[in-house]
Task: structure prediction
Amino acid sequence: MIKTRNLKERPLESFDDAERKLRQIFVKLVEDLNASKPPVLRIPLRTASNTIFDKKRGIITLGGRVGERKFNDISGVRSFMQTCLLARAIYEALKNNDHPTIRDLYYYTLHTIEGTEIETFNDQDESNSIFQDIEVMTGLLREQMGIVAESRGAMVGNIILESKGNRIDCTKFGIGAFNIPSLCDQIRILDVDADYVLVVEKDAIFQRLNDYEFWRKNKCILITGKGQADRATRRMVKRLNEEWDLPVYVLTDADPFGWYIYSTYRAGSISLSYESFRLACPEAKFLGMTMTDIEKYEIPRDHLIKANEIDIKRAKELLVKDPVTKSPRYPWFYESKKWRQEINMFLEKKVKAEIEAKSSKGFRFLSDVYLPDKINSKDWIT
Amino acid sequence: MIKTRNLKERPLESFDDAERKLRQIFVKLVEDLNASKPPVLRIPLRTASNTIFDKKRGIITLGGRVGERKFNDISGVRSFMQTCLLARAIYEALKNNDHPTIRDLYYYTLHTIEGTEIETFNDQDESNSIFQDIEVMTGLLREQMGIVAESRGAMVGNIILESKGNRIDCTKFGIGAFNIPSLCDQIRILDVDADYVLVVEKDAIFQRLNDYEFWRKNKCILITGKGQADRATRRMVKRLNEEWDLPVYVLTDADPFGWYIYSTYRAGSISLSYESFRLACPEAKFLGMTMTDIEKYEIPRDHLIKANEIDIKRAKELLVKDPVTKSPRYPWFYESKKWRQEINMFLEKKVKAEIEAKSSKGFRFLSDVYLPDKINSKDWIT
Result:
């Protein structure tokens, strides 16, 4: 049923790169020591002030400022030691083809330093922060180093995958779906025969659309991150957009939480801006439900929910400028006329609506009318 | 690779039963009306005082007390109307082969009653409660009526499923997994070649065990509910135990939250006791991590986490007796010598431990030593 297109198939990412990069950094340290130079690690700063919006790429990312971590410096020696310790553990795991979590790495490296009463790490927060330093220092995200994180997403539709020699046809799951794993770059996308990717906020909506075989009738791929998206779901969406040129549409409730979920798919999160280059999908379009939909599809007044204070606070934040830099905090909202209209309409009406509100028009209204309508008429927000 | 056993294959559940049962109840109402009898709905009480522990079956369940909902009664007429309205919507969905969520049902039935300013429901809580009444009244859980809920679980290992004519071999997902859908009774279990089911609390641990092909080496089925278990994961575990006689082992962190997760698989939740007959698996065994494991496997002191007040409060609750009935609130903990020891050891030491703490002995210690060790020596708690 699926035509072979095979245009964008790319080789699987290998962990050899990560192994080599890690090795290089630490070989350099040893060379410096041998040459009696004080060893220094150079680590891009992950601070808010070093976080910028890259207009050309449409994503938030780290700026050019770099910090130094010195062994010969009393204030830096502890984090220097921690960085080396953790990097060694990651390197060992790579060598042995192990895929631990950052929590495994913490326990693996945690111990009392010989001859002292000092612990290598005080807690997991400390170890996590050092781990992120290693990510920005090497330019490798955790998944590229084979580190596993929790994942939540599911996928179904006209796509064929391959993992460990198994061919996985995502049209063959019946009412089930493919559970997207953390290291989803280790999955080959063999073939795709779809016109677009529909990302659904809510798992139950995903299941209902799958039940109706929406993906078959509309030649698409259905994905859900089951609420706020996990890293693997975001990465899979990004890959489908980047490697297979598929448009990405995001379907959420009509409320600031839904917009925030869209925002994470679209541009990444501010606190983890260094990940955007692999996880954010600036071409993702917000399909709905929109404030205009409420009128257009005549959602009854009693089907709307009164916005609460948190909703209103969140909505206002999306249009705020940073007091220091004077630039908008969420430029992809602020600089879009349609988004400003949407958010202002919400702030004026102070109501929100759930996707399920469309069921007032019948259980199949969403799948048979609303979604095809919106997509065919290109009625989305970017 | 998988031997055909096919001993326990049972026919798929049909929604016809649900349709018939719903119809019966409302045909009876019409008959009563025609015979000039006041129409009455009889609904088992979902109150705490009508919740009992069925020792023989080892699950919590509803007692025998039943409430009446009368049309000819000013205090009952609103909920009578709501029950009929919602039941009709469920019946319609069944007739049309639609599988809405309870939220869809709410929006579908929500409207202003003609000629009044009265809403059919004030909010979703009101509608959800009436929905639960329909579940206990018919003796059918929402899934048996084709109502979809969010699901979270994943499964992998020596099991072959069938859904909508597709054969789904759970050994063929590579690093991915099968995403368990809400209506998992609509999935046929074609074949199983496994000695047990291992239920893993944490998704990342599940992924790591899958990466090592633990299920292949140990001839088992791996399942995760990604934290507190959703209904579908619990139902799938129950089915594997009931239909295929597989022992079920649960692996969580060594802390009261982990015990609570086990407890939900084991006996169900108190507030939804009427569901236990389909969702609780009284034969589920708690594999670990236990307090004794901490000593046995020499988990270093600095790898333990100090219990906080909430942990201690939770642990104490597990051994409490109900002040009114004088019977233990969690009999499966209270009446088990091993469980009492475990909980008391926790209350004495006031420490907890994460599964990942075992990584201090190497990243493969959990999969290659701990799990096979515990299972082979039958070192579990029931």
In short: Confidence is low (pLDDT under 50) at residues 1-6 of chain A. Chain A touches chain B through 65 residues (CB under 8 Å). The domain at 154-376 of chain A is CATH 3.40.1360.10 (Dna Topoisomerase Vi A Subunit; Chain: A, domain 2). The radius of gyration of chain A is 23 Å.
